[in-house]
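> run fold Cof-type HAD-IIB family hydrolase
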Amino acid sequence: MQKMIVSDLDGTLLDHEHKVDAFTAATFQALAQQGVLLAIATGRHFLDVQGIRETLGVKAHLITSNGARVHDPENNEIFAENLDPELARALMQPEFSHGSLLNAYVDAGWLVERECPELVGVYYKDSGFGYQVTDLKHHNGEDIAKILYIGDHATLTAIESKIIDRFGDQIYITFSADDCLEVMAPTVSKGHALTEVLARLSIDAEHCYAFGDGQNDIQLLAVAGHPFVMGNASPKLKAAHPNAPVIGSNDEHGVAQQLRQIFKL
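> ok
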């Protein structure tokens, strides 16, 4: 029976420096050689995640922008969902973004309202992924996969409440980290994207193993027959999946260690 492994990146497959370690890469390569299918599910941009997949040294489906984009191992786009342009324009106004760093993902790359070299130095040293400074409050709102607000958690929680009060079920909103609030179309989530991938490959969810650490992994783990929660996971994820096994942290190579036990590597 065909099996699939799907893993989040930051806080899950990547260490605290947001890098792939050699032990994890060797584990994924061994699984690929056994014929196990692989997928990455992340809030990161498709152009960024391609480089991480190359570092892993495997073929894998890519679920990116929290499920707003899905690509097959040959980089063919098989699913895409954008925010409604009028809604996107509203979300990029200072009424909502005040106090945060406003960002947006489009197919061509990462748009940000001002210079933020500190983000590149932390998250994108290996991939070389970079941003383009753009006057987002005057953007036409077309072709936007997701909008991000980066800031302190208290400020972002207030922004989240304001967005939910105004737009409710017109959007899917989630924290990918305490300092990153993200908004996508209402049909978008990692879980929905995983459902699309499993159906395309004719794999039963009961043969899918999923790993995550964040609030944006709640739906992902709900779809998989075998969900695993990282030891360093957010309280919201642990509360949403109280019966899922809690494994080692990302710095303890928790995903690779668990997979080596499951598949007897």
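The radius of gyration is 18 Å.
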